[in-house]
Amino acid sequence: MGAGVSRIVIPAQARSLLLRLNxxxxxxxxxxxxxxxxxxxxxxxxxxxxxxxxxxxxxxxxADCRTVLTGARYGTVTVILDGTPYEITTxxxxxxYSDSRHPDGVSFLRxxxxxxxxxxxxxxxMAADAxxxxxDRFGGMEDIRQGTIRCVGDPAQRFTEDALRMLRALRFAAxxxxxxxxxxxxxxxxxxxxxxxxxxxRLRKELSGLLCGQAVRGVLERFSDVICVLIPELTPCIGxxxxxxxxxxxxWEHTIRAVEAAPPTEPLRLAxxxxxxxxxxxxxxxxxxxxxxxxxxxxxxxxxxxILRRLRYDNRTAQLVTLLVRxxxxxxxxxTPKRMRKLVSRFGADTVRLLLQxxxxxxxxxxxxxxxxxxxxxxERLLESVSAQCVRLPQLALNGKDLLRMGVGQGxxxxxxxxxxLDAVLDGSVENDRAVLLRAAREMIDKSDGFH
Length: 452
Ligand code: ATP
Ligand code: MG
Description:
This protein has 452 residues and is of the alpha+beta class. It has helices at 12-23, 33-40, 55-61, 112-117, 140-146, 155-161, 164-176, 182-191, 200-211, 216-222, 224-230, 251-261, 266-274, 279-282, 296-310, 315-326, 337-347, 349-364, 372-388, 400-405, 412-427, 434-447, and strands spanning 28-31, 49-51, 66-71, 76-81, 84-90, 92-95, 105-108, 126-128, 134-136, 148-149, 179-180, 284-285, 291-292.
């Protein structure tokens, strides 16, 4: 990013908000993530605005719009334009973090400088005026260019004020593939124990963001100590040797590779992080010095449920991830249409689809399972064809009345033939088409006189 590129494009709607505040005599800037992402060349998810107007003054400026006093105490007014919410926050500083979690108080400021100084990282501490001119007091532009996450000010002090910032540093590093600047990193290793004091709701959001980052593996590798503060049950996995030729890596190394190999969605990445958490507790070594982990998925499922509840994940996510962990070991290689149909009727097609993604990531991360991706692809095709077909009798394109008309007598033989036809459809040997099924039924009837 050359010195010349110190302007970003502010979209019309956000710009109109800045201009309206300016016209009323207030300073106003786009700030934080939106400036960072614009400079990185990515479309910002939302545009946050900061101003020297106090909340009531901001609200008065937008009296003709829908506004919500979201956090008036902290200076935030949300203005909704055509359904898009914009947070407008009064310049402020925070003081006295006696609990590493909440500022004891905030006070409103007259100038932008103080507001930028309270922000966590240099890359997040830039603002832009209505014309898109960037204000960069802490070298954020250069840190984006270099790919660095660096605290604004003294890292130890900033992390002592609000311990969550340590996890945020990891989240941004994982998302952008940035390196954590050495002093910032040292402070994280030294102070990460303080994350225990942070509300689980705040941790959970950052943890999920971190796991879904493109550079998650490197971050988990370098900062396993931080992850183990959040999830101490993972500690025994680190360096845990598997004594098994199926596995090239220790449990933690395998785990972080599995996280990386899964699609970046919250349930899948969480499931991969936790899928082998039951291994250390279930380990046995046989006489041939081969390691086994009998029952590790079930043990892990139970651990996973406790962990996700403790971190206050919602019920749906907790239940889904627990199921994925508990069932992650199902046998993939021998899946026939029949086995697939059973899986689908037990878990539902959507969950089986996720289980296959878990299997794929798990296989890839062993470092030894050749062809995992191909095998999973075969199973996925099978899944799609099984779930596209009729899975239950009522969807069969032929019914009992048809058989009666073909001369089959009343009685259990009707059910026998219908089930045989259903199996043939599920096996893929017969199409679920009325004419085709009539022919197949005729053949079955002709082969067996017993039906008459
Ligand atoms: P994202 O795109 O993930 O939302 P973001 O930078 O907008 O990234 P937010 O959590 O929405 O992240 O926070 C908005 C801004 O507020 C940040 O860019 C940063 O300047 C500031 N900020 C947020 N949380 C903290 C914190 N705990 N300590 C200091 N500054 C913070
Ligand atoms: Mg944001």
